[in-house]
Amino acid sequence: MSKLFLKPGEVSSRNQYQEQSSSRLFDIGESSYDYESTIAASFLTRNTPLPIHNYKEALLYAVKEYRTVVVVGETGSGKTTQIPQFLFKAGWTDGGKGIVCTQPRRIATTTVAARVAEELESSKDALGALVGFAVRFDNCWDSEKTKILYATDGTLLRMMLSDPLLSKFQVVMLDEVHERTVSTDILCGLLKKIQRIRSDLRVIISSATVDAEKFRAFFEYSGDSSNNTATILSVEGRSFPVDIYYTTYPVQDYLQAAYEATLNIHRNEQDGDVLIFVPSSEQVDYLVERFQSNIFQISSMRKDRKRLFCVPLYSGLSYKEQLAAFQPAPVNERKVVVATNIAETSVTIQGIVFIVDTGFCRMRVYSPETGMDLLSIQPISRASADQRAGRAGRSRPGKCYRLYTEDSYYNILRESVVPEICRTNLTSAILQLKAIGIENIMNFPFVDAPPAKSVATALEVLYAIDAITEDGILSEFPGMVMADLPMEPFFARALIAAKDYECTREIITIIAMLQVEQVPGDSVFKYSSSREHKSFEAARKPFGVAEGDLLTLLNIYDAFEHSGHSLRWCGNHGIVPSYMKKARLLRRSIALSLCNVMYGLYGAAALSKADELLSQKNPDPSSIIKALLKGFFMNSAVVQPDGSYLTLVGKKSVTIHPSSILASRLPKYVIYCEMIHLKRTYIRNITVIEPQWLIQVAPHVFERRKSPMEVKWKQFISSESSK
Ligand SMILES: Nc1ncnc2c1ncn2[C@@H]1O[C@H](COP(=O)(O)OP(=O)(O)OP(=O)(O)O)[C@@H](O)[C@H]1O
């Protein structure tokens, strides 16, 4: 075979880190993919302190003098872990208020908090005291003791429902702002408003370079001449260099290319673990299985027979399963982590030296005609590609293999991601804003304003599910309760309705099971619904019910409960025990949230009410479906002669996803929980309904001559604008 990867010293000319680079063809083992190489920033020795340490004084000065500091810097320079510690040690929490740092993702939130707790308190068990975390359905902090709190952006937003001025915090740091999640963008607007009331509050924005000036300008407050308002602090340097390699021509099959690139690394490189980025959990599972089934062959590729082992990492896994990716590899073994973009930002997996980046991710894209999000596979942005590369080079120099050309990187990938707020369903976000007291959505200071049509559709949907009145005002009930429940408004609506239909236990169970099966292709069965379809169907058959997927999930949970939560029972039925354990925990969390929010109960009273809510009642299936309909009636569809379906709202042609238990039965009327766009537009998690129930639960939408899309949205817009 010909020469493999170029050595860093052999390269020259440009790269994205403005250091030396060059390009040359080479062949990677048996595969035919050619790569060009680009070398990253200057080398620092292993014991070099993190680059952010050189900026400690500058940072503390900036935070003292300016209300907002935008910090930009390379991945791995130490922003996330060190800045809160600098502020803590400099006395910013001495007045009794804490520091909160947000992250877009759960896994980053919890792992970074654990790392900082260990650094600050020199103990592995310290988490939850001085340093804590808060994510949906899981809190590990103490309102008295915790001085540094890591929280997901969505959780901080939810905290603002009870504490709109964030009075518990002295400093709010929004990390990874360039990811532009809806929650982070909304937090930016809210913080800008809070700063006008609280001149003591300090805001730190950590962002990629490209967006820095935009955020600085956004936070600059012209009304305050006595105070400096916003500034930028650039942190130069990274921990260790990462050499970047590109293919010399576009890759046809990125999964095959990822597989081959990894084999090549294993065959030719010394030690160091590999992190592969693919778009979806299905593809993660596919690659993991492929590696595992060829493990002997792969290990024998090396003279020293170093073993390779492979672990998945995506959001549908339980927390414990996710942590497996963070465990160090045994001596003489090489770990390959196959991940979705959950591992893209703020995450440090020790031992990772090689990155394989397919260049794609699965993204939610909003369709204003249907008012629904579509999940589709899209090229990543350059900012994401840099984040992915930055997962190497954190404890030693690394290499990143991009399975696309350098030309694609510079000319096809967008510089930064389209803000999620401009491409996603805003129902949940607007409900949150209304609950925080922002009535005039059109005048809210968005960093980038969402399309007016998306705002209008969200208002219309909120009106249809009774969250807001005809005048766009949040209803005390159920609107305020929906906003307080930690879940999407449609599920919250169904859960609230469940009380009247006497099926709270069942709706809680269904929501918990759906939460576990978040990602298309994921299922509670150990077989993949797409690749091991026969085994999957055979395992599901004993639980299947004619009413559809959600009641089938309920049946599975009930059987699990009946078995005494037996892990052996799970094994005998091809069910993944950790998923069921996760569902069990989630049920309890959801029940407790409901007790807090709807019944105003806390502590022991909430626990005993939660037990009552979760005890067996066996309602009629039609009651459960009617409660679901209260939330999901906008997602109804009717079968067409060719076996496709037409959505009743939006008139979109869709197909039942092959993983549905109803895929071959084709009932006349259905509701669905999710629409996804793959090769076709599919609907998932289907329930059979009677058409007359639509009129019973939502007469304001389905009574003749009242088209839902005519629901006064124009009036909403004009009344919103005039508030
Ligand atoms: N959980 C961890 N285990 C081991 N080392 C860690 C961990 N978290 C962080 N580090 C070390 O601290 C360094 C800085 O990480 P930090 O997350 O603070 O950087 P950052 O500037 O926020 O980068 P990014 O935006 O890429 O997350 C990492 O490069 C790594 O060396």
UniProtKB/TrEMBL annotation:
PROSITE patterns: HELICASE_ATP_BIND_1 (PS51192), HELICASE_CTER (PS51194). Its EC number is 3.6.4.13. Pfam families: DEAD (PF00270), HA2_C (PF21010), Helicase_C (PF00271), OB_NTP_bind (PF07717). The keyword NAD does not apply. It comes from the Eukaryota. PANTHER family: ATP-DEPENDENT RNA HELICASE (PTHR18934), ATP-DEPENDENT RNA HELICASE DHX35-RELATED (PTHR18934:SF136). This is RNA helicase. It comes from Galdieria yellowstonensis.
